[in-house]
Structures are given as structure tokens and as C-alpha cells.
Amino acid sequence: MQRYFYGMAIAVLCAAMMFAADNPASNAGGPQMLEIKPPLTDKALNNPGMGLYLFGTTNEADFTPNDWLWDIMHIGYFREDWAAAQPDSDSEDDLKKYLDPLFDLWVKKWNKRLSFRFMSQNKHSKRQYPTPKWVFDKGVPSVKQSGIYTKEQLIPVFWDDTYLALQEKFVVQLGRCMDGRAGLEFIDIGGIGQWGEMHLSGWTPEQLEATGFTETRYFNAYRRLMNAYARAFPRTSVFLNVGDKDPINHYAVTRGIHLRQDGVTPDGPSANVGERLFKPYNRQRIICNYELFCGLAEMKTRGWDPAKNVYRGIQDPISYYHVYLLGYDGFRKAGPEIKEIMYNTARKLGFRFELSSLKCSKTLNVYPGKQTASRLLIEHTWKNTGCAPCYESYALRWTLRDGTGKTVAEDVSYPREPTTQWWPETNVTLRSVIRVPPELPAGDYQLAVAMTDPQEPSVKIQLGIEGLNTDGSYTLVTIPTGRSAVQASAYRVDFTAGLSNWQAAPGLTMKRDEAGKDSPGSLHVSGTQPGNAWSYASDETIVPLMPASRYRFSCWMKVDQCTMQPPYLKMELRRADGSWVGNANTSRYDLSQKGTWQKIMAVIETDQDTAQGRFAIERGQKNGSATVDIVIDDILVEPLETP
Length: 643
Known about the structure:
Strand content: 25-35%
Radius of gyration: 33 Å
Shape: elongated
Helix content: 10-25%
Oligomer: single chain
């Protein structure tokens, strides 16, 4: 007799109707689901790999915790002459003397971040030698140009081998001092071009000709420096200021160097780099970075609308934005219009993950007197309302806490659709499960979520929702316990009364043996089967399964002959309508121990669509004939965790 334990009919009903989130009309039974829309926040978020920034300052009065700017400005950008870092020689000690006080102030005291660019040509410099004089003393050729604040500046020939060798040494030293250093956000390549940008503003045709300029030598010089930075900063984002020279732009991408452009106007960036470069490459893990063309005062003289100018930048997929509309004191005194521009920009910049809807079990079911754990089902829909992708793969940590704040259950998992693919303005719907311990005390429990990097516990991603806790999680909803005596039942068949709905594959015979493993009856399949088949025998009986559950299924198998791979038991998982979901397989029979009864088993997780299963004895490959003599008995499906 085929036997079903008590409650199987209820289990079938639950399996057919439970948690049909993709078909709400069918979700009339099973655990009742609670649906909420978590309240969103309009706060600017402070997350790694993105941010607004201003030119750095060493004046401690410029940044105080009471300033509104403190909430949205998290990066200080120091764009300095090479001579500022190494004025007298290529000493690494001089470099440290320059860097260490900045890290002490910005990172240790202000809990902010830093970024850098060291320039070799800078017409805004007040120095005669933006590139240190000792560089020229080593034989690097130069040209003379006028600066804005100096009558004469010496500019190195960027494509000269001696100059490039000295720059490469400088980059190595920068890497030793800073790569991976806490608080370092990014570094720009600044050793070629006016301001370290991809142009030779200030160079006359005569100077270019006299110094042996060719486009090839210029491109080669850039490639040497890009290679040097890529080697020196394997743990830090490196940016190249791009332009219209695509052989340089595209080579940067091959070296994992990110893209920036200084010069966003109300009509967009120079060389149309947003359309040409940023949009094609941002989905290939290339981070994009803009700087405004000018500050607020010059915008007014040009007749530009500041809001239109700033907002034009976040129409492209950027994660960093240098918005130097004003200096620190100017921002402190800014009116509501400037504040609104800055807050709106901060909210849109980079990625911003909002939990737009949440469905979860209305109660936490517990089962008195049973050791089988329950499960809390969660369906959650997210939307990236930022302008750029997220470039890191983060995990979600779901937590249940009791009234005292103690964690009673937790699940950490990486989303099936990783956060690197939560594209801007796209909804992502995911499903999660939390295991609820047996005999959970009655009461109310709070469900919270956090986005984390399990490999870096200190990283806590801020989300665009209310409810932030001190541990970086967000409290979403309170769920009470429920008491239920009904739970998914086990399924067992031992062939005592017959073979039921089992059928042998063509070429094989099937019969019921009187003797089984421990009971009077077993299923016996034997014969020679031609090729082009997956199974030796299959069962059309529907095995009821609960969605989002954990099961163990097993059988006893004895093989006296098998010329094919070791056989095993397969459960074909299906939806309530009979459509296929996937397969679950037990371990294989050990053919080195032929003629013995062996227990083969598997522990499986059903997804939220699974409602039923069907069994088959599997060959393991489709092609090739097989001669077999197989006996199975006592097929058992045991629920371990169910909603």
C-alpha cells in the first residue's frame, strides 16, 4: 500500500496555492502575506565608490559638523603641482610629509575621504616650476610658457624618456604611500598635459616641433604613465582625464583605468564624452567622474543657469562630481537655491537603492512539539534611483529581532541578480527566506535588512529608506508569531501493496518483489535498454512539496548489474500547473559494492514556485544502451524547514 502521512492533503493544497507572488490571483491559501511600502528618505547617502567633492582644504574652520555641507560633501580633492609633494628631490620622505597631515585631518579627524592629482603643467600655479626644478636638473628638456600668476613657467617635454622615467618613479612612490590606504578614494593621472588633462593648452606649434612632438610619441607617453598607475594602484581607483583622443581613452579602459572629464557646461561635457565614452563603458565596471567647467561667479558672467549646468552632469552615468560652485565659506553662506541644487545632485549621484515594496509572511508560524523549523518568506522589490550603476557586489542581511533587540534569526545571501546589475531606474524583484528556529517564543519580532560586504564587515551601504539603525540595518516591519498544528507532511512509499504509477522505460521489465529492504515489497527493474533515454523507470504520482522549503529525500537501492554510470534517484520539481522548475538528484549508487542495499539521499531547497515533484530512476547519460538489474525500496521525502 502506498502510504501518505497525516496532513498530506493539506500539504497539497498549500503547495498549490502558497506564495504565488507572480500570480496574485492564485494566492488565496497558504501563509498569508503582508505587503508594505517602506517609507523612503530624501537624505543624501554616503556610500563607497561615489560622492560629491570639493577642492581640499587644510583650514579646520572650513569644515564643522554643524555645516549643512557636512551631510553631502565627503571627499576632499587635492589637485597640486608635483613640486608641492617633492620640492627638493625625489625623496619619498618629502612625499610622506606632504600626505600624512592631510590624512590626519581629513580621514582621522573629519572621517572624510581624500583624492589627488599631481600636475606637471599648471598655468594657475604661482610657482615658476610646477614640475620640480630638480627634474630639469637631471636633464629633462623643457619649454617656457607664461602662467596666469607668473611671467614664466618651465614645462617638461612629456614624451621625453628621462621625464617619463622620473614620473614612473614618482608614481611608484605614490603607490607605496597611498594604495589601499584608509580614506583614499581615488587618484588622477596628472603627469601629462595642461592641468593633467588630455590637451596641450599653452604649447605653440613651434614648441611642439622643436621638442619632437608626434602623436605617436604622445600616445606612447600616455600609455607608459597609465601602465605605471595601474601597477602602482591595484587597490585604488585611478582616473584618466579623457578627451577626443580615442586611442588613449580606450587603452585606459583595457588597463582598468576609470574615466573623468573636467569641463561640464549646460550643453554637456567637452568632446561629448558622456555619450561617446561614459554610457558605453559604465556597464563594464568603468566608473565615471565629472567636474564643472567653472564656478558660480563665472557661470553668472556667461549667463549660465547654475541648476541647468549642474544637473546636466547627472544626466550621464557618473559616480563622482566635482561641484566647485563656491568655496567652503561661500557654501556656508549659500541661499536655498544653491542648497537645493546640491542636495538634489547628491541624491541622484552614483547609485541609490530604494526598497520600493516588501511582501513577507504575515505571521511567524511555529509548530508546537515539532523540531522542524519554520521559515519566513520575503519578496522584495528594489529600484536604483541614482544615475549610475553600483560597481560592487553586495549581500543582503535579513534579521529578526525580539523586543529586546536580540537577533533570533538571520540570513545573509547574495542576490540572484547581483547589485552590479541593478541598473538605474530599473526594478529588481528578489525572494529571500529566513529560517525561524523551532519553538520560537510567542511575541512580536522586527524584520530588518542591511546591505553589506561580508568580506569587509566595516562596509555598510546606506539605503534610500527610513529606519536606519546604528548597526547599518533598517527596521522594516513588526511580525507576530502564530501557532499552528499543521505542517507539511512527509511522503513515503514502500511498495507493500503494489507499484502504483511507476512505469519502466522501453526495453526494460518492471515487477514487484515480495521482499524489500525492511518491508514486504520493492520495485525491481531489469533488462537491456536501448540508447536515447534518461531514465530506467519513472513515477507519475505527484509528490506534494511546499515552496521555499528544505527537504531531505532518499531511498534504498540495490544494484546487481549496471553497464552504465552509477544510477541514482531524481526528483523532478514542478510548479502547481505541472510546468518544470528543475531537477534534484540523490547521491549515486556505489557500483563497487554491487548487490548490497545502499541508502542514497539528497537535501534540497525548493524555490517559491515549487509545488510538486515526480520521481525517476536515472541513468546519468542519455546515449548508449544499458543492461541493468536494480531494486529500490522505501522512498522517503522529509520536510526539514517549511513556511
